[in-house]
Amino acid sequence: MDPNNTAQTQPARASKSSQPTFAxxxxxxxxxxxxxxxxxxxxxxxxxxxxPKDFVISxxxxxxMVAGYDIGDPLTDTLxxxxxxxxxxxxxLILDNKTDSKLAAxxxxxxxxxxxxxxxxxxxxxxxxxxxxxYRRYPLMLIWLLRNVALMAxxxxxxxxxxxxxxxxxxxxxxxxxMRTYAYILAVSEHPLLPKTSTRMPRTRVxxxxxxxxxxxGWRQSIQVRQIHTLVRQxxxxxxxxxxxxxxxxxxxxxxxxxxxxxxxxxxxxNQTDMIxxxxxxxxxxxxxxxLLGARISSEEAEGILHLWNLASYWMGVDxxxxxxDEAACWEWLYTYLSIQQLDFEMGQPLAKALHDxxxxxxxxDNRRGRFVEMVNASVTRTLVGDDIGDGLALPKSKLRxxxxxxxxxxxxxxxxxxxxxxxxxxxxxxxxxxxxNMNWWLKKNDAYYQ
Length: 451
Hints:
The protein is mostly helical. The chain is built from 23 helices and no strands. It has helices spanning 41-49, 59-69, 74-81, 87-96, 101-104, 107-117, 125-136, 139-154, 158-167, 174-188, 217-238, 250-253, 263-266, 272-292, 299-315, 327-339, 345-356, 358-363, 368-384, 387-392, 407-420, 422-439, 441-446. It is globular and about 55 Å long.
């Protein structure tokens, strides 16, 4: 794929006036009929508030999604099949001009080097910075939405949760995995210091010049995570990961007789379509959550957030042509994806429990504050995602769960003041930076970039 691909138009799709009438898209076991989840609260909300009144699911988009199930990351999968790791040599080549002779002759490595050596021509650094500033403006809300909306919502979809279960990634190491995911979204959204910001703000490293600069932490982590995803994909396909034993019912995993991943049922693990779903979890869903909680995110900032994550996902191996190109297209894509995903709450419950129980694990089983934080987290999921998914994942249900919406007038008032008063904006930015630094306590202990 050309790293300077400028195509920004959505592939041609069926007219919204023609509802799909056949189920050719149901060639994988994971795919349900488009009306199987019509009563799911999150789908009802998207359709009522975020889609055109005349919207119907496009047959072309369905076919595009299903085709994406069978495509992983062709460039890096080829390298993995040849027994080659690329993360460190790629960084050394681009940043230090150090060449690995074996990799330098490999066409896939050369294509990766071209992709990561410079920004594609469609990337607008200023627009991305506008999005990054808005994305990072609310540190407490950001971690709330990451864990309680983006991650929790995905646990109800076995095609997304099964790779995590089989690798043991979010059950046995829930805190490190959560914080490293948090570190990644911070790295992607890292931006130059704002003007007139207090010099007394915590300063742990040299400021960057631009968002997602070549050689930045977001750039480095995109390379590293892409390699990890490639290795996980190869291990799952070969049946090397078996951490799901005793956690998920064997029949529900639909493994092949030899224990390997069943591509006929699930598609390829960490495939193009599921990577786009993850892309929207980190961009669209978090942005929507911020707005629901009272943040004043302008249309330009919303465009910037999506633009920022388009580059991050492109670097992570997502085919640019498959990404929805604007916010309206993102909601159509997400609604279509959720409409056809098999749900399995029982499979997702171990992941949900591991994430839910973190506060008391850190503060002590009998700690009241820990129990309160857990209840608040569950309330965020139930309020913003839906009680049906909250019930399915066995999250506690508080009578006061809608109390999380008390943040709406507070955040809205602060944002309004920020927009109209530079002194308030400067003080809020200094407070945000200090709050962000406090929330990075785990990263400062375990991640050299924050030390």
